[in-house]
């Protein structure tokens, strides 16, 4: 399976950063054995699409409804209309700060699919849950309840992002990543049959140029969802190099 390397800019970026977005897309397109994309704030999508040409630009959330009285929210159709081809759903920062529940996330994934977007659906345990020995149960529960019934196929990726590894510089041990990704793969295949093999499982949480090769070599790690190290082409490039090497 081709590796999928996705940058997540979170709440970073204004029109001052369009040159950097163009630089990231130019670098990413050098690595022809890798699928890559950049998820930017909704305010930047249209201008980012203009700046990058054919490179995939995504959003960072979407509402579960197609339209209506939902102040400040952005629908999947609006993302698509702005030029996005994918969106992230269920990120732990939204599960925590916006109180998103598995049922909300499942509905958002369905809305993304209906709008023709690819979706990256995030799961992951907190430090407290890991220390209590509950990491596997929590993550498999999120997989069971936040993935839609019609999840089969390559339109969907799952991102395993241990909450304690996000933005902390603390990376999960490759053996723990291997165990978690194998358990997620088994759950996907049990639920969707052979189609479950086509769903890419990304790792996210302090992935950078120093650790990407090791993480991407772990079985069932089909790519990465990258926050801080996606903000500049210089930091993103070594991750793409590591992903390209996996395909050679
Ligand atoms: O949350 C993340 C990507 O969605 C990971 O962020 P960092 O790479 O900054 O740890």
From TrEMBL:
The active site is at 91 (electrophile), 161 (proton acceptor). It is found in: Cytoplasm. Keywords: Cytoplasm, Gluconeogenesis, Glycolysis, Isomerase. Its main location: cytoplasm. One of its GO terms (cellular component) is cytosol. Belongs to the triosephosphate isomerase family. Gene3D superfamilies: Aldolase class I. The lineage of its organism: Bacteria, Pseudomonadati, Pseudomonadota, Alphaproteobacteria, Sphingomonadales. This is Triosephosphate isomerase. Its EC number is 5.3.1.1. Pathway: Carbohydrate metabolism; erythritol degradation; Carbohydrate biosynthesis; gluconeogenesis; Carbohydrate degradation; glycolysis; D-glyceraldehyde 3-phosphate from glycerone phosphate: step 1/1. GO terms for molecular function: triose-phosphate isomerase activity. It comes from Sphingorhabdus wooponensis. Involved in the gluconeogenesis. Catalyzes stereospecifically the conversion of dihydroxyacetone phosphate (DHAP) to D-glyceraldehyde-3-phosphate (G3P). Homodimer. The keyword Cytoplasm applies. InterPro entries: Aldolase_TIM, TIM_sf, TrioseP_Isoase_bac/euk, Triosephosphate_isomerase, Triosephosphate_isomerase_AS. GO terms for biological process: gluconeogenesis; glyceraldehyde-3-phosphate biosynthetic process; glycerol catabolic process; glycolytic process. It is an enzyme of class 5 (isomerase). SUPFAM superfamilies: Triosephosphate isomerase (TIM). It catalyses: L-erythrulose 1-phosphate = D-erythrulose 4-phosphate; D-glyceraldehyde 3-phosphate = dihydroxyacetone phosphate. It comes from the Bacteria. The keyword Transport does not apply. Substrate binds at residues 8-10, 167, 206, 227-228.
């Amino acid at each position: 399976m081709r590796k999928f390397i996705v940058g997540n800019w979170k709440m970073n970026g204004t029109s001052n950063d369009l040159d950097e977005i163009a630089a990231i897309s130019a670098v990413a397109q050098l690595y022809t054995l890798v699928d890559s994309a950049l998820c930017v704030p909704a305010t930047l999508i249209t201008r980012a699409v203009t700046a990058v040409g054919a490179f995939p630009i995504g959003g960072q959330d979407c509402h579960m409804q197609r339209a209506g009285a939902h102040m400040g929210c952005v629908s999947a159709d609006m993302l698509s209309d702005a030029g996005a081809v994918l969106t992230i759903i269920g990120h732990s920062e939204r599960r925590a700060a916006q109180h998103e529940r598995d049922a909300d996330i499942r509905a958002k994934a369905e809305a993304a699919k209906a709008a023709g977007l690819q979706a990256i659906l995030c799961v992951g345990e907190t430090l407290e849950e890991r220390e209590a020995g509950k990491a596997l149960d929590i993550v498999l529960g999120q997989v069971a309840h936040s993935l839609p019934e019609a999840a089969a196929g390559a339109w969907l990726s799952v991102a395993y992002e241990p909450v304690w590894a996000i933005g902390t510089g603390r990376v999960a041990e490759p053996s723990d990543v291997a165990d978690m990704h194998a358990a997620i793969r088994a759950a996907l295949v049990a639920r969707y049959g052979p189609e479950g093999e086509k769903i890419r499982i990304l790792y996210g949480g302090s992935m950078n140029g120093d650790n990407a090769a090791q993480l991407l070599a772990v079985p069932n790690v089909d790519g990465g969802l990258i926050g801080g190290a996606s903000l500049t082409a210089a930091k993103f490039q070594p991750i793409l190099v590591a992903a390209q090497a996996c395909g050679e």
